[in-house]
Amino acid sequence: MVGKKITNGQIEGALNKLLSGGDCLVMGFEKDSAGIRHRVFKDSLGNMSITNHIFALNGGLYLRRLFSKGARIALVLRPCEIRSYVELVKLSQVEPENIIAVSVDCFGTISSKVDGVPVDPDADVLGKEPDRARFACANCRERRGVVGDAGVRLDVSGQYWVLPYTEKGGKFLSLIEGPEEDVTVKMAIPPSKSAAAFQTDMAEFAKDFSNCIMCMNCRDMCPVCYCVDCVFNGDEYLPKGDALFNKIFRSGSTDMPSGKELFHLIRMYHVSQTCVGCGACEEACPQGIPLTKYFKGISERLQGIFSYMSGRDPNEQIPMVTFLEDELKNAED
Amino acid sequence: MEQKIEKNPEIVGFACSFCTFKASEMAGSLRMKYPEGVKLIQVPCSSRVDPAFVIKAIFEGADGVFVAGCHPGDCHFIKGNYFTRRKIAALKEELEAFGMKDKLRLFWVSAAEARRFVEKVTEMYNDIKEKKNGR
Amino acid sequence: MKTGIFICHCGHNIKHTVDVAGLSEYFRKYPQVTVSEDYPFLCSEPGQNMITDSIEKHGLDRVIVASCAPSLHGELFKDLLRKKDVNPFLLRRVSIREHCSWVGDDMEENTEKAKRLILSGLYGAAHFIPLEEKQVDVNKSALVLGGGVSGLSAALFLSKMDMQVYLVEETPELGGRVRELKSVWPSRKNGADIIAEMENELKARDNVAIFTSSKLTNFEGFFGNYQATIDTPNGEKKVMAGGVVVAIGFTPFDPDIKPELGYGRDPRIVTTLDLERMADALKLPDKPRVAVLHCIGSRDEQIGRPYCSRICCINALRAAEGIKERYPDSYVESFYMDMRAHPRGGEEFFEDTQEKGVLFTRANIAEIIPEPEGVVLHGEDTLLDEVFERGFDLVVLSIGMSSPATSRDIASLLKISLDKDKFFLEAHIKLRPFDTAVKGIFIAGSCSGPKDVEESISHGRASALKLYGFLNLGYAFVDPFISIVDPKRCSGCRMCEQACVAKAIKFDEDKHVVHVEEAACMGCGLCNATCPSSAISLKGYVDTIIGDEISALLEAM
Amino acid sequence: MDNSGKNVLVVGGGIGGITAALELASCGINVSMVESGPSIGGRMIQLDKTFPTLDCSTCTLSPKMVEVSLNHNIDLMSVSQITHMARKGPGFLVGIKKNPRYVDPKKCTACGTCSEACVMKDRIPHEFNMMLGKRAAIYMPFPQAIPQKYLVDPERCLFVSRGKCKKACMDACETGAIDFEDKGEELEAYFDSIVLAPGFDVYDPTEKQELGYGTLPGVVTGLEFERICSVTGPTGGDILLNGKEPKRFYFIQCVGSRDRQSGARYCSRVCCMYTAKHASIVKDRVKDAEVYVSYIDVRAYGKGYDEFYKTTQENGALYIRGIPGEVVEGDGCLVVRVEDMLTGEMREIETDMVVLATGVRPRKATAELCDVLSIECDDYGFIKVDAVAPSQTNVDGIFVCGMGSGPKDVPDTVASGGEAASRCMEYIVKGTGS
Q1: To bridge A148 with a disulfide, which of A82, C43, C304, D287 should be the other Cys (CB 3.0-4.6 Å)?
Q2: Nearest-CA distance from B83 to chain A in Å?
Q3: Do residues D367 and D356 both lie within one domain?
Q4: What is the domain extent for residue D221?
Q5: A with D: touching (≥3 Cβ pairs within 8 Å)
Q6: Cβ within 8 Å, pair B94-A297
Q7: Count of CB atoms within 10 A of residue C412's CB?
Q8: Among residues D360, D394, D418, which one ends one of the domains?
Q9: pLDDT value at B4 more than 50
Q10: Do A130 and A208 belong together in one domain?
C-alpha cells in the first residue's frame, strides 16, 4: 500500500483545489468558538476541521436520496459516517459517481448533550478521557479511516497520511503535493477487538425502554433508516385512534398495543444488516434510552452470521438479497 | 383465558401453500392428531413471511411461531426458501439475543410429509408446554 | 362491510368434533357479519344455493366458507360469487376439517380452534380487495416432453386437434421403453410395431416438430405463453408453447443398488429387460433351471422404494412363460411376495403359467451367490416357513420402475413438484391425476408413478385432452396474486429487484422506483417480505391481511 | 377449432361418464348424458371414502356432479334408457326413453315434505343403501343427488302401480310439482359419437352358502359395508349391527374374484384396497376394534397403495393369508374357519361382523345396451376393447370407459374417461374431415 505523508493544511489545500473548480462541494466539519458541526463548503473551506470530537448526528443522514448528477462532492467524515454512506450506496440511496468519500481516523467522540466540552477537534477522547466517550465510540467496530475512497490516518510516530483505497481515492491523492511512498510504519489506531455477542432479555428491555414515548426520533435520525414511508407510520403495527379502539373493542383486552417491543425489535431487524453502530439514535433520543447497546449489539450479531460488515466494502452484497445453497443448516429445526 | 394460555401454548405457524400446507391437509385427511394450540396461516411461499410477522405474533401472545416451507431445492418458486432460511436465521439470532430463541422454529416439510409435519409441530408444542409449565 | 359466514358440517366429518351450530351463532354478534349459517354439505347443490341466495338477499361483499381444505372446491365456491357478480376474490376459505375437526378429538378445543380460524378469515377478508383475473391470449401449441408411448399418444392427439406440437426426446429415437418389448401386455403385440405405427403417423403430420437427442434447457413465461429453449443437435431452438405435457417415463431399477443380488457380476443373472433384449441370443442347457424374482427394486423400504411398480409381476410371468415356451423341459420357479397380476387378463395368464408348469414360491430372497456349477439363491419360504438354498442356470430379476433420472431437473425447470419417491406429484390423485400445481403443465404416463403401456396411452391422451380443453378457447386468465408497487412509498432501494427469483422487478432510473412485470411475477411474495416498508406487496397476501390474521389467532376472546 | 354443433352421447353418469362428459364439454362439445338411475354419481357416490387418501367420496365427487348440472354444454337425462340405435353417416341416430319422474323438476324445491307424507314412507328397501334402510315411494336417493329433485318410484307407488292412494304427497307439496299424468318422453337424436360408461355391479355371494351371506346376520358385502360407514347411509355413518356397535371384524377378500366356481377368473382390482380402506376406517371409528383380513395376494399396485396397505397393518389390522372355508354361527357371534397358509394351522376366529370383499361384475344392463348398439363383449360380459386403444370398441365411433370394459379403480377410471373423450374428439374431427 502506498500513500502520502501530509502536514497541516495539505488536505485543505487539496480540497480547495477541488472547490476552485466551481462545480464541487466539500462536506465536513466547521469549527468556531461556538462549537463544531457538519457543514457543506462551497467556494472556500473557511475554518474547516478534518476531525470532530463531538457527536450530534451521523452525516450520512444528509446523503439519503442524493442523486445529483453533475455536482461533485468530497466527503471528509468519520469512519462511521462513511460506512453509512457506503450502505446507502448499496441501497441506491446515493449516486456515488461524483462523490469522493474520505474517512478520517476517529479518536472517539463525546455526546453533544454533554455541556461545557472545550472545542478541540483533535482531542483524543478515548485516550485521554475515556469515561466521557460515548458508548458507541468506546465499543466502536471501526475507528480507522480505512473505508471509502481514501483515508486520513495517523501513524504511531504522530505523522498523518493520506491513503487511497479506490481509483477516485487515487485522484484525490494526486491533488496532494509530495511523493508517494510505501507505508511501512504501524498506524496509531489498531483494529478493534471484536466484542462478546450482545445478550439481553425482555426484562432488561422493558426496564431500559420504560420511558420510550415512541417519538421515533431514533428512526428519523438513523442514517440507514432510509424508507420514504416507514411501516410504522401506518396503523398496522401501532394502532392509533379508531384502529386502536376497534382492536380493543373486538379483542376485549384494554392493554395498550405492545408498540414499543414491535417498533424497536422490528426496526432492529430492518437495520440489522446496515446499522453502523454510530449511536445517532441514542443521541437523538429525548428520553436517554441506551439504544446503541441494543441496535449495535443486535446488528453485530446478525451481520456476524453472514460474516458481513456494514460499510466495509461497497461490493459486498447486503445478505438479505442473496444466499448460498449450502449454509445455515443450524437454523433448520 | 389467561389460565388456559398459561397451561396450553398457542402456536402460530406460517405454512407454504405448496408443501407444508398440503402436508397439513394430508395429515388431516389421514386423521393424524396434533394439539389444537397449533394454528396455521397459509402463505404462498415461506419467503413471503416477513420477520415482522413473527415478532408481531410473539408480542401478541404466541408462545411459539414456526415458519415452514419446502425442502431446500424444492421450492415451487425455485429459490424462495433459501431467502427464508437467511431471514429466519437472522431473526433467530435476534430473538436469541433477547433470550427468546426457543420461540421460533424453521421446518422443511414437503407436500408428502404429513407425518413429519405432525411430528414437528407436536414436538415443538410439547417442548414449549414443558417450559411454560416447568416454571 | 357485509360479510357472510357459511359453516359446513361436511356430513359428520366436521360436525362430530366441532359445534357448528354454536359457531354460526357466535359469529352473528360481529358487526361486520350480516349472515352466519351452518349447513350439512355446502358443496352440494342446496348448499350452494343457500350461499348464492344470501349473497343476493343481503348484498354480501365478503363470503367466508368454513369447510374442507381450500385446495378442494376452489373454483366451485368462487363461481358462486361470480354468479352473483361479486368479485370471486372476496371469498375466504377457512379449513375447519383438515385443520381442525380431523386433527383433534376434543369437541370444546376444536370448536375454540375453529372459532379462531374463522375469526382470522373474517379479519383477513376485511382487507380483501376485488382482484381482476386478466384475460390473456394463449398460444395454441404444446410442448411434449418425452417421446415414449405416452408422449407419442399426447403429441398425436394434439396435432390431430390442429395444435402445433413440439416433441422433445432425450434419446436419438422415439418409442421409449416400449420399443424394447417383444410382447406388450395385454395386446401381445410387438412394442416396436406399436411405436412404428405411431411414429409414422406423427411424422406424416405437418404441425409436429420432433426434436430427438434434445433436451429442455430453459423454460419461462406463464400459462398459454410459455417460452421453452431446447438444446438440439442442430443448435438451440426457442419455441412458444401454450402448455406442456410431461411424459418423460421412468428409469428401470438398477440392481447394482442391491449388491446382494450379484447383478453384473455373473452373466447368468439378468433383468427382465436384459431378457427382452437377448431374446434369441439366450443360451441355456436343454433342461435349464431358471429362477424368476419378483419385486426387485419395489416394495423395498431399505433402498427407498416402498412403492409397488405395478407392472413387474406381469413382466415376471412373461419371462417365465418365455422360458417355458423355449425350453419345455425347463424347471422354472418364480419367487414372489404377492402375485399382483391385476391388469386385464393378468389373472388368467397367471393361472395359465401355473398350468404350463411354472412353480410359484412365496419367498424372500436374501442373497444370490454365483457358484461355478450354478447361481445359488439363499432365501426363506414364507409359506413353509423354512430357509432354502437352490441352484439355477439363470436368474431373472423382474425389476421395477424408478423415478425418471431427470425428474428433478425437469421439476425445477417447470417449477412443478415431486412426490416422496421423486415421481411427479399430481394435483389430486383421483380427480386431477394429470394436472400439476402449475397451470397448463400436465403429467402423463410413468413419470407420475408406475403404469403399464395401456395406462400410459390413456394418460397421454387424457392429459393432452385436458391441455387442449384449456387452450382451445384461445384465451386464459392469469393468476391475480402478483406483486404490485406503490410508487409513492417505494424508496428505490432495489433490494426486491436483487432478490426477485423470477426477475420480474424492474427499476425505473428516472422515477427512482421499481415496477413489476405482471406476466413474469410468480407471486411468491419474497419481495414483499424483503421490502422494509412493504412498498411492494403481494396481492391477496398484503401485510394487513396476514397481520390481522395473526391478531385473530391470538387475541383474547 | 369450433366444436359447437357437435353432439356426443354419454351413457352412464358415474365418475367415468362424468369425467368424459366434462372433458368433452370443456372442448365445446354438446353432451347428452343418459343415466338410468334417478341421480348421477354412480358407484363412487355410494362410497364413504376412497383409498388411498381416505378423503370422503361425497366431497370429491359432489362438486363434479354439480359441475355437470351447471355446465351449459351438458344435457342431463335421468331415469332414461337407450331404446334403439342406427348408424347415420359417421354418427348415430339414437332413441332415448326418458321415463317419467312424476315430479316437475321446474317446480320441485327438494324440500322433502312429499316424502314425509308418503304412505309408503320407511317401507321400501333403499337401493342406494344396498337395500339397507328404507325409503318412501316418492324420494330423492341421497341428499346430494343430481338432479336435486324428488321422483316417484312407479313400481312401489300405490297410485301409479295400483291406481289407488290418497296421494298425501300431492297435498303436502306446496309447489304442486307432483304430476301423475307425467308420461315421460321418447326421443330420437343424432350424435356424432357415443361414450359408454355403464359401470359395474358387485358379485352376489348368496350362492356361496359356506360364507353365510343372506343366512347369517352380520355377513355383509363390501358395498353394503360402505353404506353402513357412510354419513348418508342408513346408520348415519355409525358402524352398527342391529343397533349395537360390533367390536370384532373379519374381512374376506377375493369373494367372486380369481374364482372359477363363481365364473370370474379375473382379478377385480379394487377389493384388496377397499378392504384395506374398510380396515382403517374401522380402526379409526370403532374404539379398540379387532380386525382380521383374509387374503390370497394383496394387490396394492397403485400410487401410494402399498404404503397405505402397510399403514393399515401398522394400525393393527391382522392379515391372514388364506381364504376361509366357512363362516358359521357361534355363541352370540360368528365363527370364521380359516387355514392360515403362513403358519399352516387351522384357525377358528370369533367375530361380530364379516365383510365379504365382493368382486366386480358387468352391470346387468350392459348386455342389453350392447345388443342395442351391437357392441361385442368378452366372456365375462365386459365390453371388448382394443388393447392398444383401451377405449376403442368394435364399433367405430363408440367408445367405452371405466368398469364397463373391465375392473378399474377410481384413478384408472378417471384416466380412461379422459382417454375415451380424447378418442371421441379425434373421431369427430376426422368425421368432419378437418
Answers
A1: A82
A2: 6
A3: no
A4: 203-360
A5: no
A6: no
A7: 17
A8: D360
A9: no
A10: no
> DSSP per residue over D94-107, as a string?
EEEEE---SB-TTT
Q: How far away is chain C from the Cα of B33, in angstroms, using its nearest Cα? A: 4
- The domain boundary, picked from D360, D392, D422, lies at D360
CA distance D433 to C283: 53
Residues D26, D28, D34, D35, Cα dihedral to 10°: 10
Using alpha carbons, select from C293, D41, C491 the residue that is nearest to residue A274. Answer: C491
Residue C540 backbone zone (phi > 0: left; psi -120 to 50: alpha; other: beta): left
Residues 88-127 of B with CB under 8 A from A: 88-94, 96-100, 105-108, 120, 124
**Closest residue of chain B to D52, computed from CA coordinates:** B30
Q: Closest approach of chain D CAs to the CA of C5, in angstroms?
A: 20
Average pLDDT over residues A120-136: 92
Query: For residue range A153-173, what is the model confidence (pLDDT) as tens digits?
Result: 999 999 999 999 999 999 999
Task: Quote the domain boundaries for residue A239.
Answer: 202-331
Distance CA C533, CA B55 (A): 16
Fold classification of C483-539 is Alpha-Beta Plaits (3.30.70)
| Cβ distance of B28 and C102 shorter than 8 Å | yes
C3-131 matches C253-395 in fold = no
CB-based contact A269 B100, cutoff 8 Å:
no
Query: Which pLDDT tens digit goes with each residue over D155-177?
Result: 999 999 999 999 999 999 877 89
The per-residue pLDDT for range D64-114, each reduced to its tens digit, is 898 898 888 999 999 999 999 999 999 999 999 999 999 998 888 777 889
Letter string b/e over residues C221-259, b meaning 16 or more CB atoms within 10 A of that residue's CB: bbbbbbebebeeeeeebebebbbbbbbbbbbbbebebbe
Is B4 domain-assigned? no
Count of the separate structural domains present in chain B? 1
Whether A187 is covered by a domain: the verdict is: no
Instruction: Express the helix, strand and coil content of chain C in percent, nearest 5 each.
Output: 30, 30, 40
Yes or no: domain C3-131 corresponds to CATH 3.40.50? yes
Model confidence pLDDT, tens digit, residues C311-321: 999 999 999 99
- Same domain flag for D218 and D298: yes
- Is there a contact between C554 and B45 if contact means CB atoms under 8 Å apart? no
Best mutation target among A250, A254, A332 (most B Cβ atoms within 10 Å) is A332
Q: Are residues A13 and A156 in the same domain?
A: yes
E strands, D217-352, in order: 219-221, 248-255, 290-295, 318-321, 326-329, 334-339, 346-351
Residues D306, D188, single domain; the answer is no
- Chain B hits for C556, Cβ within 8 Å: 1
Give the pLDDT mean for C290-297: 96
| Total count of domains within chain D | 3
User: CB distance B106–A199 less than 8 Å?
Assistant: no
User: Which residue of chain D is at minimal alpha-carbon distance from B29?
Assistant: D55
Do D384 and D356 fall within a single domain? no
Q: What ipTM did this prediction achieve?
A: 0.70
Contact between C532 and A228 using a beta-carbon 8 Å cutoff? no
Instruction: Give residue limits of the domains in chain C.
Output: 3-131, 141-250+403-476, 253-395, 483-539
- Distance from the Cα of D331 to chain C's closest Cα (Å) equals 32
Statement: C253-395 belongs to CATH 3.40.1010.20: no
Q: B26 and D284: CB-CB below 8 Å? A: no
Burial tier of B88 (Cβ tally within 10 Å: 0-12, 13-18, 19+): buried
Same domain? For D243 and D288 the reply is: yes
- Nearest residue on chain C to A231, judged by CA atoms? C533
Backbone angles phi, psi at D20, to 5 degrees: -55, -45
Say whether D55 and B30 touch across the interface (CB within 8 A): no
Helix (H) or strand (E) holding D63, with range, is helix D57-70
pLDDT value at position D434?
Answer: 38
Q: Are the beta carbons of D39 and D146 closer than 8 angstroms?
A: yes
